[in-house]
């Protein structure tokens, strides 16, 4: 691959849940690597549009879309709109997710289903909306954002861990199905990352979360984004079915 141009030049990326946090950092990083980017949000179009405008400021094309990842028809409609306005999507990052923590024995069906619907069903629906086009063009990249809870577990997050563990299994199996079509499927596993969602974590809880890590600090969203961008480039063309830990040395 030539080194005199951005590694993702000419590619179109769709990042779910990219109006803030890790997703936003991934969307902006893709633009730095030369991709045109679709910024997705569930409800807040203004936030998504602000990220899209930042990306346009770098000289790349961008658009903001709303869709509920739990609703297959909404993702299919978003895919059609993106194809009409920007072109076919080459890269999909399944980043959108939610948590509804609590003890397993006390957890109602509503909390369980909400987490599974967003984290697992949303990943499946988004992938189905875009993967056929990648298969037809014989090139594609799918990166699923998972969690240490899906690998080593965490008390109070049985629903979240189950959803992310399922996405890990999906990643590895889908990679095998997609390999003959030139579509690579990997996952990135962030640890405790400094975002808006972690600002209200009590200091003692933060220390406990960081204690098992090697680096003893929170990660930054950009440290996750760079790994995702690499996996979507031709530099990672011999990597598929992998779970890449970006967690400060937490997971084995």
From TrEMBL:
SMART domains the record matches: PKS_KR (SM00822)
InterPro entries (UniProt xref): KR_dom, NAD(P)-bd_dom_sf, Sc_DH/Rdtase_CS, SDR, SDR_fam
Occurrences of domain Ketoreductase (ranges): 11-193
PROSITE patterns xrefs: ADH_SHORT
Stored SUPFAM superfamilies: NAD(P)-binding Rossmann-fold domains
Highest taxon, organism lineage: Bacteria
Signal peptide extent: none
Family: Belongs to the short-chain dehydrogenases/reductases (SDR) family.
Name of the protein this chain belongs to: Beta-ketoacyl-ACP reductase
């Amino acid at each position: 691959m030539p080194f005199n141009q951005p590694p993702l030049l000419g590619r179109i990326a769709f990042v779910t849940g990219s109006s803030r946090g890790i997703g936003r950092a991934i969307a902006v990083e893709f633009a730095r690597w030369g991709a045109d980017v679709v910024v997705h949000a569930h409800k807040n179009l203004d936030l998504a549009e602000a990220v899209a405008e930042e990306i346009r400021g770098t000289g790349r094309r961008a658009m903001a879309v709303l869709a509920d990842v739990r609703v297959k028809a909404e993702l299919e409609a978003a895919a059609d709109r993106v194809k009409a306005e920007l072109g076919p999507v080459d890269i999909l990052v399944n980043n959108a997710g939610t948590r509804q923590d609590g003890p397993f024995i006390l957890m109602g069906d509503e909390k369980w289903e909400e987490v599974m619907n967003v984290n697992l069903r949303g990943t499946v629906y988004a992938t189905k909306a875009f993967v056929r086009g990648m298969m037809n063009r014989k090139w594609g990249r799918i990166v699923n954002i998972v969690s240490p809870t899906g690998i080593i577990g965490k008390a109070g997050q049985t629903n979240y861990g189950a959803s992310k563990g399922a996405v890990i299994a999906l990643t590895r199996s889908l990679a095998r199905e997609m390999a003959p079509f030139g579509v690579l499927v990997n996952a990135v596993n962030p640890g405790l990352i400094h975002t808006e969602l972690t600002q209200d974590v009590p200091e003692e809880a933060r220390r406990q979360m960081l204690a098992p890590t090697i680096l003893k600090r929170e990660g930054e969203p950009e440290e996750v984004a760079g790994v995702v961008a690499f996996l979507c480039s031709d530099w990672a063309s011999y990597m598929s079915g992998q779970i890449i830990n970006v967690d400060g040395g937490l997971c084995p």
